[in-house]
Known about the structure:
By secondary structure, this protein is mainly beta. It has one domain (3-61, 77-126). The chain is built from one helix and ten strands; from the N terminus they run βαβββββββββ. It has one helix spanning 6-17; strands spanning 3-4, 29-35, 46-47, 56-57, 74-75, 80-81, 90-98, 106-118, 125-126, 132-133. The strands form three sheets. Strands 1, 2, 3, 4, 7 and 8 form a six-stranded antiparallel sheet that branches. The protein is globular and about 50 Å long.
Amino acid sequence: MSDKSNYLETQIINHLFRSGTFAKPATIFLALFTSAPDAETGAGGTEVSGGGYARVQAGPGDGFWDAPANGGDTANTGEIVFPTPSVAQGLATHFAIFDALTGGNMVYSKALDTPRTLAVGVVVKFPAGSLTVSEQ
């Protein structure tokens, strides 16, 4: 199960039930964390940094995520590859989706099914279908 952030929940409620509007971000980015960000606020947690790390663009678009299934699940449609670390960065245990390359608003977060060791020279990648976001 993935968690929607308070930011996204508020945007959806204001868009559907109030006078606010919410335009989806022009780009979304996948981030890796070595400790869990707060699923509600997006605060806390430790995002990987240094050694060539950067968030990876992951849409939005049909070419990045498959059509919702099972009442709201989607998964990456292609392989997602992070920059190769030039320094050891720890063990990635969570991922989050943001609306900006740096900073920005976290919209979803989730624990990785299989944590990934971020070692010097080891390419961290997620095969198609291995990252899921759920509305359940």
